[in-house]
């Protein structure tokens, strides 16, 4: 499955992109899409990696006790922690849910970002990923100058991300697709406990047992 790269020739600053019609409408549509999923996400902490718009709208319906937004640059009133999404300043197994709102599409190394998100998740924690569908109107926008905000790098088909999640040991619970050309993957970090094998008795022991 190919990666679809963005035409970076005439990127639009993010603040202006989200203030205009298409970007503003997309943010509202995706916030609504997330709302139906966040009702089933519980726990103490939801971590969003990467800011998506000059707002905390994607986190609005979260039912976790706390929501933290980590961004790679300071954005007062929106970003709580400044850090690198590919090198999180967090302990492993410390977060109940992680939200990646198009974060992988902006990342220079999306593999590293998704591995870090998986690392900090608790067992049975949930991973939510928003992305653009390549074969859609938004996919077409991605290859046109000015179609995406500044920093956008590539489109990642949901099938490719599902393969990555399977390698990490995550179970994909559902994939929701919005008519506007985006998708939402909800996955769960599974911790499989191997079943111990009972040691087989030696041949002499088996013969002795059979004789009794």
Key attributes of the depicted protein:
212 residues, alpha/beta, 7-stranded mixed beta sheet, two-stranded antiparallel ribbon, 25% strand
Shape: globular
* Strand line-up of the largest beta sheet: 4-3-2-5-6-9-8
Task: Compute the number of strand runs.
Answer: 9
Structural class assignment: alpha/beta
Description:
- By secondary structure, the protein is of the alpha/beta class.
- The chain is built from 7 helices and 9 strands, in the order βααββββααβαβαββα.
- It has helices at residues 14-19, 21-38, 103-106, 110-120, 137-142, 158-168, 203-211; strands spanning 4-5, 45-49, 66-71, 81-82, 95-101, 121-132, 154-155, 170-178, 182-189.
- The chain has a 7-stranded mixed β-sheet, sandwiched between helices. The protein has a two-stranded antiparallel sheet with strand order 1-7.
- The longest helix is centred in the first third of the chain and has 18 residues, at 21-38.
- The mean pLDDT is 86.
Topology, please?
Blueprint (H helix, E strand, L loop, with lengths): L3 E2 L8 H6 L1 H18 L6 E5 L16 E6 L9 E2 L12 E7 L1 H4 L3 H11 E12 L4 H6 L11 E2 L2 H11 L1 E9 L3 E8 L13 H9 L1
How would you sum up this structure in a few lines?
The chain has 212 residues and is α/β, with parallel strands linked by helices. It contains seven helices and nine strands.
